[in-house]
Design goal:
4 copies of one chain form a homotetramer. The first copy, chain A, is built from 3 helices and 8 strands; from the N terminus they run βααβββββββα. By secondary structure, chain A is α+β, with helices and mostly antiparallel strands. In chain A, a hairpin with a 4-residue loop joins β4 and β5 (88-97).
Amino acid sequence: MPFVYGRVIRFHETDAAGVVYFARLLTLCHEAYEASLAAVDIDLKAFFSAAGGMAVPIVHTEADFYQPLSCGDAIAIALVPKQLSLHSFEIAYTISNQHLPSKHSEEPLAWALTRHVCMNLHSRRRHPLTPDLVDWIGAVALADPAD
Amino acid sequence: MPFVYGRVIRFHETDAAGVVYFARLLTLCHEAYEASLAAVDIDLKAFFSAAGGMAVPIVHTEADFYQPLSCGDAIAIALVPKQLSLHSFEIAYTISNQHLPSKHSEEPLAWALTRHVCMNLHSRRRHPLTPDLVDWIGAVALADPAD
Amino acid sequence: MPFVYGRVIRFHETDAAGVVYFARLLTLCHEAYEASLAAVDIDLKAFFSAAGGMAVPIVHTEADFYQPLSCGDAIAIALVPKQLSLHSFEIAYTISNQHLPSKHSEEPLAWALTRHVCMNLHSRRRHPLTPDLVDWIGAVALADPAD
Amino acid sequence: MPFVYGRVIRFHETDAAGVVYFARLLTLCHEAYEASLAAVDIDLKAFFSAAGGMAVPIVHTEADFYQPLSCGDAIAIALVPKQLSLHSFEIAYTISNQHLPSKHSEEPLAWALTRHVCMNLHSRRRHPLTPDLVDWIGAVALADPAD
């Protein structure tokens, strides 16, 4: 099984059409990414404030929306990271109803992807993924028997 | 003990000063309110979309900020509702570090309040709190041995 | 020239890395979409609350991020809609510095896309784009001499 | 006249009750504060990232909500700052329909307040308001003939 992040949809995430605002879905996916980093003991505050002069900004994202989400819905976000190059990785997210969390579910609610590049903020150049990130990719990928 | 909602601060809740954006604290408090309603089996989707022609909009809010919150911080929001009149109630929220969730903590991180009035959306007039809400106030208040 | 929406980046749109949170860029693009609808006198409240039983939810989105955006930056979002089928359209957004708003700018800050399908909310089936939307696509496309 | 910030309500600011989410109102007020700082040439990026080791965090906020706001509504936020002590100031915000922007309007849509304390981030102690801020308060207050 991939890393799975559970979450209840909150009122502030909905819009006047009565369902989750489209861009919010990517925010939910990023929360799952944060939870998976914390699961291997990466310090989120230091990591995301680029305390070490290193950052891994998102350079590309995509999402497909199959079903609307409503306030109170319990969702499960399954996340699979993959290293793309020395400097980059991407994460695929499958969002489903928490009562059907399996990746074998025929009907996910949505799917999304984020692509990240490791940067040295001083030189403004690409930098190899840090050992922490390589370990995180390995740990989360290993957790997935289908890979 | 009052109803307590636990939550990890997420990256999107921070701002360029490196800490949680002030108005986000009220969003976190509203999440705690939602969780406490769900705990007594109120249907959140129906409740917040005013499906029955009844709504309880917030007419007043306040907050005091004592300490900044950072990405990755685990917080606990303790919530105490109180009926104010036939038509209205307020909720007091105490936000503390999750490792010190007690209301006896000497140093909460923040404090907030929301005041709600029950409205009939057809007549645009005040309406007595529904039995569901009166029961919710009683249940959450009963949960608090200090009251 | 395509329809262009100008906007200053606000503090709440930044995160603890000091720049605009990635998913916020899509929110900015949706604001540009709203402004372009209002420019042809579509009533935004009715349109987005699906007052007529018709909605045009976003079924796909993508974005590429070339440069970070900071609080106070004045950006220009140029928007080009295109009808894809009887029932669907997409919008391409080019985000640039407002002081270089031209589509001929060599270095946009970001690029994004949203794909929309017109739905009848009662039947839950696809519905031909309403005349309002077809007119909007024509008006905004006509505004672009390069198309 | 006080400093007035005009703004159209956007879809992402609404919730499933069909109106602006309560905490969003404070975000709109903070935008007005940012616009008023920019009007006296304060660099927003430097100011809000505490580039000079000085920050003016919000320590208290309140708001009263009189009327709901909908997607597409054009609002005007009138802002009046007031110095409270050597180290602190507060800002009162009156939110009204943009077609009735006067402070003499009988029916504002909402009212809010933020209280700010100047801090030296290195010493973690209060610091006198910087000359920039004192000048900003004077300039915006002078702009108000009623004060």
